[in-house]
Amino acid sequence: MDTPIPDTKAKAAERYRAGVMEYRKMGYWEPDYEPKITDVIAVFRVTPQDGVDPIEASAAVAGESSTATWTVVWTDRLTACEKYRAKCYRVDPVPNSPGAYFAYIAYDLDLFEPGSIANLSASIIGNVFGFKPLKALRLEDMRMPVAYVKTFDGPPTGIVVERERLDKFGRPILGATVKPKLGLSGRNYGRVVYEALKGGLDFTKDDENINSQPFMHWRDRYLYCMEAVNKAQAATGEVKGTYLNVTAGTMEDMYERAEFAKSLGSCIVMIDLVIGYTAIQSMSKWARRNDMILHLHRAGHGTYTRQKTHGVSFRVIAKWMRLAGVDHIHAGTVVGKLEGDPKTTAGFYDILREEKNKMQLEHGLFFDQDWASTRKVMPVASGGIHLGQMHELLHLLKDDVVLQFGGGTIGHPLGIAAGATANRVALEAMVLARNEGRNIMEEGPEILNQAGRSCLPLRQALDTWGDVTFNYTSTDTPDFVPVAVASY
Amino acid sequence: MRITQGCFSFLPDLTDEQISKQIQYCLDHGWAVSFEYTDDPHPRNTYWEMWGHPMFDIRDAKAIMGELKECRLMHGDCYIRLCAFDSTHTWESLRMSFIVQRPAHEPGFMLTRQEADGRNIRYETRAYVAEKPEGTRY
Which of B9, B11, B46 is the best substitution to test chain A (most A C-beta atoms within 10 A)? Predict the structure, then answer.
């Protein structure tokens, strides 16, 4: 180390004089900074208040999400404060979005506790999201360094081992959510599970808000569901499962429910995103200890992922959940009733399923991401999809996905089992045709009609839903080219 | 009943031409094809008997169909499945698996229930044919 020269000392004294100072001058804006391979990097969409300089706003985001407070504090000088300051190193205008900027911010690894999404998110999406000089703020994407990735357990089961346990290879997994989502008694509920599984589905699923209500207590549901699962398994000779939702008011209740599910021989349990990151990580560890597949329903995410100006992109949530360690996560359908631009959704699927993600701006992926052999998460496509879209679903989402046809199974005119059979036949026919080299995007409807000739339930389903579509404009779409003409 | 393991059990039994096309699909992806047979189709019977090793070095669908023909000759009364292995890092498992022969008659499974503590029930799935010794079941 060089001995500090008096000039530097004078500068430091000036820097730490009590008072208020611009964030950009406090060290949170370093345009020459080159992120280290161990840095966590975040890219935010920053919309400053009118008259606020975009660089200053971005530096403030770096400051407020790391070490800064609103004023200079002398106690910084007791620490290696330059290391701990997050550094905004790049600010680009968002294409076709006047007044909005992409701010790239690098965080030293020492800022974060190993293996804790709660800790990471408390910094990155903590106080900073309420910061007054910003009109709006959105966390778009993050690059997790391998050194950080390796502090997480990741999925307890993962796509490959899940397939091995279920003995299901070569096609998407088929599921359905029991409907109506509320009101069925345990006995009636189990009937739906049995019919759907016997008819050809691999999984059935509790909905996010099925916990333990007056019409059906959780133990009753579990007992009847496992009767249905075992009966369907014997009827088909095939492994079956039902996601028993263990979401509850306390961790103790969740553990109790999960233990009961295990004692009944269930191969999978389910939690909701609203239980929180820490509870998710706890259940992940429990699932690992107990050979259980862990399904995550992303209940609540739409409150902060959907609007492009403010919140957190789902691609960040997908990354956090792969680290936190879930085996299934709902990730969009593209063609169904819920939000989902095709390219943005492809980005989510890549995050969950690939070993390494390449930066792909048109899919909303801002960074290369190395997952360092973290197991892969099975995406779940659920919400207003039906078998008439089978060719599109297979083409867009590929093989490693759970396709959930709730209404399309339970609402079948010939009954639930027939609905399940129709879905399974449509799926197998489409996979067979694709593997034979046929162009399913062109021949899809013909392939389905052909399969329907020897399968009455499929023919009936096509007559009922063949033409239903949900064509609405997506709100969460890629910005195509975030590299701007002018860089500050 | 009809056992629905494997990825094409809900379709009419595949013809040899259809099987051959699926084999070609596996070869095009660099997967190693193998055949396995059993007369114990319990859903959790993972290890069916191997008809030789996975054919890592055979890249010709016709030759693989020849192996299937041999296997069928020797085990005409068994279930036979095709398996395709992918050795790619982070997969290193099966990519595809489907039944290419099944016995003429499939009696299916009995579900037994043993009433345990409280309302708990211990379930057991047992193939009706499992009472007979291996090799004499179908």
Answer: B11
Mind listing the pLDDT tens digit for each residue in A248-304? 999 999 999 999 999 999 999 999 999 999 999 999 999 999 999 999 999 999 999
Name the residue among B9, B25, B125 with its Cβ closest to that of A234: B125
Cα–Cα distances in angstroms (integers) from residue B56 to residues A70, A364, A385, B69, B79, in the given order: 65, 39, 39, 18, 23
Beta bridge partners of A47: A136
Given A135, A150, A168, A179, which residue is catalytic? Answer: A179
Predicted model pTM: 0.94
Mark yes or no for CB contact B5/A234 under 8 Å. Answer: no
A295 among known catalytic residues: no
CB contact under 8 A, B8 and A424: no
Bridge partner list, A295: A270, A328
Taking CB atoms and an 8 Å limit, are B10 and A160 in contact across chains? no
Distance separating alpha carbons of residues A310 and A44, to the nearest angstrom: 10
Q: Do B12 and A454 touch (CB under 8 A)?
A: yes
Q: Is A289 left (phi over 0), alpha (psi -120 to 50) or beta?
A: alpha
Report pLDDT digits (tens) over A436-451: 999 999 999 999 999 9
Query: Tokens standing for A481?
Result: 């080219």
Size of interface A-B (CB pairs under 8 A): 112
Q: Please give the Cα distance from A388 to A470 (Å, whole number).
A: 13
Contact in structure between A225 and A217 (CB atoms under 8 Å): no
